[in-house]
Amino acid sequence: MSKASAANAAGKGKGHSLREVLSAVRRNPRVAVMLALGFSSGLPFMLTAATLGYWLRDEGTSLKAIGFISWVGLAYSFKFLWSPIVDRVDLPLLGKLGRRRGWMVFAQLVVGVGLFAMASTGPSAGLGVVGAAALLVAFASATQDIAVDALRIEAAEDSEELGLFTAAFQLGYRIAVLVSDALILILAQHFGWPLSYGVMAVLMTVGVAATLMIGEPKQAAEALAAKRPLWTPSGLVDAVVGPFVSFFKTFGWAALLMLVMITLYRLPEFVMGPMATPFYHDLGFTKDFVGGIRLSAGLAGTLSGIAVGGLLVASLGYVRGLIVGGIMQGLAVASFALLAFFGSSPLLFGAVMFFDNLGVGVAGVALVTYMSSLTTLGYTATQYALLSSSYTWVGKFAKGFSGAIVEGIQATGQTLMHAYGIFFIGAGAIGIPAVLLCVWLAALPERQAARAAEDSSGRS
């Protein structure tokens, strides 16, 4: 397991306030690099999801088609399938940078190429063409996530630094989401969508620069060097099966409970995601207005969410922090119904944007820090890819039907706005099972956590 205590399985852990993270970014170059890597990981995500949906809606694409094209994001759900390769194989030429860094640079360059392809083609070339370019971006982005997450965990010298790295990563990720979901709208309003996507492609150089600035984790390299080569039968079995055996051996039956909880935890955000930006469009707001509100109220909510999430994890522990975050996330998604039912006043829109980013930020900090604490040295990339894929499997598939659901509700005689409102309330409510599972996890006996900690100490 990672240096974070396996007691986290029962909800014990270390969190950091936003002030501590910003102070660490100024003082510690490695924390600053994690902030930049978080930005690089977060930038492509919205560009193949909600932001692409806004572009498609501008071109008159139906909600049903927008929902279905969001399935390109399934690449994030299946990244565990090729994570053993990222874990065990050095890339030609780029492998000289180190296994983790070589894969990171490769993936970042491919993301940039894919975004340039989206900028060059656009919806006018057909949904198939722009969808193929978006799929390339999603696969490369998922590969970047595998390598970055492994490096983030392996580079930490102790649980304190892991907490700082994770919090800085989350801050960078959320900033990137605002850039690719808000700032880009202002750019698109004045310069068009193709140029805006071109600018996002250039911004991927932030990730390349950050990758070149940080060293390869030595302890992880030593652990991986002791493994048999991937191309040998025993090495292949260890790379593919070993991470799963190690995970279930450490946590026993609770491992299955953890995976189910993680799988369901982000359902509200995923399901509502493809409909958010078409909703803004159909409310009649300009891209300048939406971008401005998201960069102001949204940024304030993001910073508050990271701060509150860090404090909750520090004071309550990971699992109890997940409970609070899950409740806030569900309410934040459901709050979009207020705009649909009671009108699109700028003040109400700003309040919803703030609360949405607050709730999602709290939930994100708690979930990522919790998952980071569950990995074993030598299997980091594959295990974290499994965990982070788990929380996207159901959500990424289900969100493809979001547009069809809204149009189906509208077909029952509801107005489009009322259909949106009912959909958002339902999307928020589907987070309840994950919260109940978190309550169950929080109630696990302390002795089970202690046993997991003893197992992990022999593997660290």
Description:
Residues 1-13, 449-454 and 456-460 have low confidence and may be disordered. This protein has a single domain (6-457), classed as MFS general substrate transporter like domains (Growth Hormone, Chain: A, Up-down Bundle), CATH 1.20.1250.20. α2 packs antiparallel against α8, α9 (159-191) packs antiparallel against α20 (346-372) and α18 packs antiparallel against α20 (346-372). The chain is built from 25 helices and no strands. The chain has helices at 18-27, 29-47, 50-58, 63-69, 74-77, 83-88, 99-121, 127-154, 159-191, 193-203, 205-213, 218-225, 233-240, 242-251, 254-265, 267-283, 287-316, 318-334, 336-342, 346-372, 380-398, 402-411, 416-429, 432-442, 446-457. 78% of the residues lie in helices and 0% in strands.
Keywords:
460 residues, globular, Growth Hormone, Chain: A, 25 helices, 0% strand, mainly alpha, 78% helix, disordered N terminus
What is the average per-residue confidence, as pLDDT, rounded to a whole number? 85
CATH topology: Growth Hormone, Chain: A
Residue ranges: pLDDT <50 for 5 or more in a row?
1-13, 449-454, 456-460
Q: How big is the Rg?
A: 21 Å
- CATH superfamily, called what? MFS general substrate transporter like domains
Largest sheet: none
Total helical elements? 25
- Named at the architecture level, the CATH assignment is Up-down Bundle
Order of helices and strands: HHHHHHHHHHHHHHHHHHHHHHHHH
- End-to-end distance, in Å? 6 Å
* Proportion of residues in β-strands: under 5%
What helical percentage do the residues reach? over 70%
Q: From the helix content, strand content and strand pairing, which structural class follows?
A: mainly alpha
Number of domains: 1
Outline:
globular
Name of the CATH class: Mainly Alpha
> What is the number of E strands?
0
